[in-house]
Design a protein that fits this description.
By secondary structure, this protein is of the alpha+beta class. The protein contains six helices and five strands, in the order H-E-H-E-E-H-H-H-E-E-H. A five-stranded mixed beta sheet has the order 1-4-5-2-3. Strand 2 and strand 3 form a beta hairpin. The longest helix is centred in the C-terminal third of the chain and has 20 residues. It starts with a helix and ends in a 19-residue tail after the last helix.
């Protein structure tokens, strides 16, 4: 499976039944837990529309990570797809986002780490972003946390139908 197809499959799979303030807190908490387990120097941002619902900066992160969060998040807001998928599509065409998107690279970055928060019946309603690791690792951390949240929201009877959200992906870096 190509990188683009793998990323598209992740997005198709990681659609939530709902996304409340409590769900944003749970997602952020999953990300903090994953980052602490890995001693990852990341910053985390979760938004629903324009409203920031969760933000955390862990030891080793800096204001630079917040700038990267903003740039990657803008890609999700503009394209409705993960920042990593948008970048992968440009790479698959033999170019780069920076060369071909015609968007200001100081405001947009199609690097891994920002993922759309999609809700069944509503589509993309927000974003979750991690910055501080290589782009494939930022992306994989978000995918793992969204998988955990999705499993928790599905309840015990539906969990067997979900792929293991903690399993490594081809893009785990």
């Amino acid at each position: 499976m190509s990188e683009v197809a793998t990323l598209e499959a992740q997005e198709a799979r990681l659609v939530l039944p709902r996304f409340t303030y409590e769900d944003a807190w749970a997602l952020g908490s999953h990300l903090v837990e994953l980052a602490r387990e890995r001693q990852a120097p990341v910053a985390i941002d979760i938004r629903r529309g324009a409203q920031q619902l969760f933000h955390c900066a862990l030891p080793g992160s800096s204001a630079d990570n917040d700038a990267w969060i903003d740039r990657k998040r803008r890609v999700v807001e503009r394209y409705g797809e993960s920042s990593y998928l948008v970048g992968a599509r440009f790479r698959a065409k033999g170019t780069t986002f920076e060369e071909s998107s015609r968007l200001d690279p100081d405001r947009y970055a199609a690097h891994g780490g920002s993922f759309p928060v999609a809700v069944e019946g509503a589509g993309v309603i927000g974003s979750v972003t991690v910055s501080g690791l290589p782009q494939a690792e930022d992306h994989a951390m978000v995918v793992a946390a969204l998988g955990r949240l999705q499993a928790a929201l599905a309840g015990p009877t539906d969990r067997a139908d979900l792929a293991d959200p903690t399993a490594p992906t081809d893009l785990a870096g």
